[in-house]
Write a structure and sequence with these properties.
Helices cover about 40% and strands about 20% of the residues. It is of the alpha+beta class. The strands form five sheets. Strands 14, 15, 16, 17, 18, 19, 20 and 28 form an eight-stranded mixed beta sheet that branches. Strands 3-9-8-7-6-4-5 form a seven-stranded mixed beta sheet, sandwiched between helices.
């Protein structure tokens, strides 16, 4: 089978960023010739600035500015030499002052990202293991890529989940000398804190545990001498804790600090810490500004500034508590996150706030799950109390407008973030989707008018009315939970004419369904002990066993977009009813007209495995068909198909006897086991029994025809007749004979001949093996799906696993 084209995470991120840029909320440029901290000018308009990470306003302090200017005059714009050889004259005082702030010697790095790249490979030894907090900063995640190339185990836990951490500790501790837990002190999106006291309790319980904190968002506004949030809790730095601080953001200059009381580790990092050794050092202006800031930190002035900022934060929290705005985490950090749910509502709120003269940040995928978009607001010393009052007043008005403009509700947002809901009915009832449309939401195809369904949804794959009745019967009452599916049928009519029709299923999927086969092979070993490891309940357009255009929309109807928005509301309610962890809308062309609307609702585009379709029936005989192929394909036919024809017997069977059916089911399971590129659970035998009894199914059976060999079924194609479409939707192969008799290619060829014989107009060949199908004249189609996850944890866990298999393969 041909390799599957796998999803590209960067393409998905780019998709979201491009949409946000088009909406005018990302990749903006500040205008004007000056910056003050309190205001930000965009397109010539002045905005109150609530997006800075300079929480104490030190980047605008005259002392820092003058120090930087004087350093340029005295030392030039840079000192272009590795710090391993010699540091420029200003470094010594900065290192001395930072050591006084932390009460231990420090290492200065160019920035925190380079700091992580320098520190982690030096601190984590080959015999160690690493556990990432799910929400630790991207720069920490990125630095662990280097560790994977050395075969160091890198795993992940859900955010601040100490039970999960302890479980991983016990597991990894059996084979690792040290286990490093990587976390933020203050998390950059929601402003919540690491549970430092509880983590230190685990350090005492498990001596192997070492903690690595990125505290760049906790720096300066908290702690003795502004040493940060982590130090405010710890007071003194234990040997088992490695701390990354910053000289940028709130500190007001540039650079980062590496702090450890482990002298051997300190020496190892300083002597050979990658970017520390080979990268340029901080510019004199940056070091001078940092020196000026460090002097403030070492004086009592830092505590006055901290208290001043805390007064502003308290004022903001007090005002916010008098509103119904969904604040995601209640804390006293400068970072706050107001949830909007969908990107569409987030874009709209940011734009409305800018119209009223307030600049705030958009928090969007991949920093947060795409359905957990929101507005990130930072409070700084630049913000006057009246500015903060005006901000909350504007938020209260504009939040309601943003919900109204994007046809959503506060209830839906609160559900997206699992916040306590306002009083409302939780019952899923189609009658609540009132308005211009007549809406039917049914749990069985038998409750849908057969003629109506087949007119608009028939003739495509196996999801005409009869095909869906077969699937309902096959995927219910099975022993295995993965083979019991929930079905829902949605019909939206206007004046008795359909505007939108579809069906959905909720079923248990393997999270690696579209991952690399190496990832699936690794996970299948894990599933021998835990069959449901890394699996999720998925609400999907269509089903695992069908493919094609599952969503009918009458784009000529003036209100089709309103019907689509109604569909999104139904999706949310079904997600909640089934407790689904993921929504997957499948089988769309890349250039489909719904792309923008899916993005705005928080659905991220992902590549799917290629599928194939055959429609070239303008030939009369098998000889004509072969002549219609390209020269290269004809050579392929002679070598890989014609050579074996005299050795096989091909029969078209309307049904199989009991022994044959068992044999064919066994062959299906062989294909299922071998095809990890599309990793699903094994379908139940009940499905094959129902197919065998259904008059729309037939079986292309290939047996050996050698006189001196025992007659045996070598392969079978399970084919469904859906109007003028022929659907070979499952296959069984005996891999012991697949090469000897060219079994797979023979089955493809005879499928085409059979479809021609039946007068079909199209063959839906299904996913994977597009290379083989193309040789016989099929068109290979690149489809995409749109995915929405409840949180990013499982996707990122698969990303870590995929990265590890890449490095080790």
């Amino acid at each position: 089978m041909a390799k599957i084209k796998h999803n590209n995470f960067l393409d998905s991120v780019d998709d979201v960023m491009v949409r946000a840029k088009e909406e005018g909320v990302l990749h903006l440029y500040a205008s004007g010739s000056t910056l003050s901290g309190r205001y930000l000018e965009i397109d010539g308009k002045k905005h109150y600035h609530f997006g800075t990470t300079g929480y104490l306003g030190l980047e605008q302090d005259p002392r820092l500015k003058e120090a930087a200017i004087q350093a340029i005059r005295d030392c030039g714009t840079q000192f272009p030499l590795s710090k391993s050889y010699i540091s420029h004259p200003l470094y010594e005082e900065l290192e001395h002052n930072m050591a006084a702030i932390y009460n231990t010697p420090v290492i200065i790095t160019k920035n925190s990202t380079l700091g992580h790249l320098a520190v982690l490979p030096a601190a984590v030894r080959d015999e160690d293991a690493v556990i990432l907090d799910h929400q630790v900063h991207w720069s920490v995640h990125h630095a662990t890529e280097v560790l994977k190339t050395r075969g160091i185990p890198v795993e992940m836990i859900r955010h601040n989940n100490l039970n999960m951490l302890e479980e991983k500790l016990r597991e990894l501790g059996q084979r690792a000398e040290k286990v490093w837990y990587l976390a933020d002190g203050v998390y950059s999106m929601y402003g919540d804190f690491a549970p430092i006291d509880e983590l230190m309790g685990l350090v005492r319980k498990y001596p192997q545990l070492h903690l690595y904190f990125d505290d760049v968002h906790g720096m300066s506004w908290k702690g003795k001498h502004g040493s940060g949030y982590v130090m405010s809790v710890l007071q003194e730095l234990p040997k088992q804790v490695l701390l990354i601080g910053t000289l940028s953001k709130t500190f007001g200059a540039s650079g980062a600090t590496v702090v450890t009381t482990d002298r051997k580790l300190y020496s190892r990092i300083k002597n050979f810490g990658g970017p520390l050794t080979f990268s340029a050092q901080l510019e004199p202006a940056s070091v001078a500004a940092a020196i000026a800031s460090s002097r403030i930190h070492l004086s009592d002035e830092i505590y006055e500034r901290q208290q001043d900022l805390q007064n502003r934060i308290s004022h903001f929290n007090r005002l916010l508590s008098q509103t119904d705005l969904p604040l995601i985490d209640h804390n006293d950090s400068p970072v706050h996150f107001i949830g909007t749910g969908t990107p569409a509502t987030g874009y709209e709120l940011v734009k409305l706030m800018m119209q009223d003269g307030f600049y705030t940040n958009l928090g969007i995928f991949p920093a947060v799950p795409v359905k957990n978009t929101g507005v990130r607001i930072t409070i700084s010393k630049h913000n006057e109390l009246e500015d903060i009052t005006g901000l909350v007043d504007a938020l209260s008005i504009n939040y309601k407008l943003a919900l109204e403009h994007t046809q959503t509700s506060l209830q839906r947002v609160r559900r997206a973030f699992k916040l306590p809901e306002a009083k409302a009915s939780d019952t899923l009832d189609a009658s609540k989707y009132s308005g211009r449309f007549q809406v039917s939401l049914e749990s069985s195809i038998t409750r849908i008018n057969k003629e109506l369904w087949n007119t608009y949804m028939g003739g495509k794959s196996i999801y005409d009315w009869e095909g869906l009745r077969l699937l309902e019967e096959s995927f219910s009452g099975n022993e295995e939970q993965e083979n019991n599916w929930e079905f829902r049928y949605l019909v939206i009519l206007h004046n008795q004419e359909p505007v939108l029709m579809t069906y959905l299923t909720c079923a248990l999927w393997k999270d690696d369904i579209f991952s690399k086969k190496e990832v699936s092979a690794y996970l299948e070993k894990e599933r021998k002990m835990n069959p449901y490891h890394l699996t999720s309940r998925v609400l999907s357009l269509g089903s695992l066993i069908t493919e094609g255009d599952h969503l009918y929309i009458d784009f000529n109807h003036t209100d089709w977009l309103e019907a689509l928005n109604l569909f999104f509301r139904v999706l949310e309610d079904l997600e909640r009813e089934f407790q689904a962890e993921m929504i997957v809308l499948r089988d769309f062309r890349k250039d489909n007209r719904l792309h923008k609307h899916f993005n705005l609702q928080g659905l991220v585009r992902m590549d799917m495995p290629e599928s194939a379709r055959f429609e070239q029936f303008d030939w009369e005989s098998s000889a004509d068909f072969i002549s219609s192929l390209s020269k290269k394909s004809r050579a392929h036919f002679r070598k890989d198909i014609a050579t074996f024809q005299e050795h096989v017997d091909v029969q078209i069977r309307p049904s199989l006897n009991r022994v044959e059916l068992r044999r064919c089911y066994k062959l299906y399971k062989k294909v299922k086991k071998a095809n990890l590129g599309l990793n699903t659970f094994t379908y139940p035998f009940q499905l094959f029994q129902n197919m065998n009894a259904h008059n729309a199914y037939e079986f292309i059976v290939l047996c050996n025809d050698d006189d001196d060999k025992y007659r045996l079924i070598l392969g079978v194609m399970y084919c469904y007749k859906s109007g003028k479409t022929y659907v070979p939707n499952l296959i069984g192969l005996d891999y012991e004979y697949v090469n000897e008799y060219g079994v797979y290619r023979q089955l493809l060829y005879h499928t085409i001949l059979r479809a021609k014989e039946l007068g079909m107009e199209r063959i839906d060949f299904g996913m994977t093996a597009g290379f083989e199908k193309r040789k016989l004249g099929a068109e290979v189609i690149e489809n995409v799906s749109y995915v929405q996850v409840r949180d990013n944890y499982k996707l990122e866990s698969l990303g870590i696993l995929q990265g590890a298999t890449d490095k080790l393969s």
